[in-house]
Amino acid sequence: MRLACGCATHTYGLDISRPDLTFKAECLKAQAEMEHKAAAYDAAIACVNDQAENSELWFVARTAAEAYLQQELRRLHAVIEQDAEHAATSL
For residues 20 and 37, what is the distance between their CA atoms, to the nearest angstrom? Predict the structure, then answer.
């Protein structure tokens, strides 16, 4: 997950004027959540890349159901790949 501003106030609505243990715990929790989402995003990109190389998924459809499935799979890949390109250029 890529964020325009990574500060605690804008990302999670945390009050950065509280230098106490509660604030530190909130920051650690927010960081763990962000790392978990980044790992899930990376796993989704890896899955898209694996599927793109799998020739069994990109055969010539013989039925309407196969054509629909491939259309939707291509649409999903396009959305994920577009987001990945945007994230790469915004770093």
Answer: 26
